[in-house]
Amino acid sequence: MHSRRPFRLSDRQREILTFVRRFVDEHRFCPALREIVEGTSYTSTSVVHHNLATLKREGYVDYVPGKIRTVHVLQEDGDAAAN
Predict the structure, then answer these.
(1) Residue 82 confidence (pLDDT)
(2) pLDDT on residue 73
(3) By three-state DSSP, how is residue 61 classified?
(4) 37 and 15 in contact (C-beta within 8 Å)?
(5) Does residue 56 lie within any of the structural domains?
(6) Which of 16, 57, 80, 82 lies most in the core, judged by the most C-beta atoms within 10 Å?
(7) Can you tell me the distance from the alpha carbon of 11 to that of 41, in angstroms, rounded to the nearest whole number?
(8) What are the 10-residue block averages of pLDDT along the chain, 83 residues in total?
């Protein structure tokens, strides 16, 4: 049995989590991919998408591929929750 290395969020992944959580708190609906780009330090939707896929795989967020406004936080990183 292989043991998995513990996943550690990057600062930019933490930034996405914080943005999504705050966006939903403020607007009561999930942000679109473009809104995540505009509200963070990212400049490319493809880079945000890649990081969202990683966050989904690790259980931090969920979304329905191909559907807009479905990104939501499942689990908070301790640092993200404190911001």
Answers:
(1) 40
(2) 94
(3) strand
(4) no
(5) yes
(6) 16
(7) 11
(8) 73 95 96 96 95 95 94 74 41
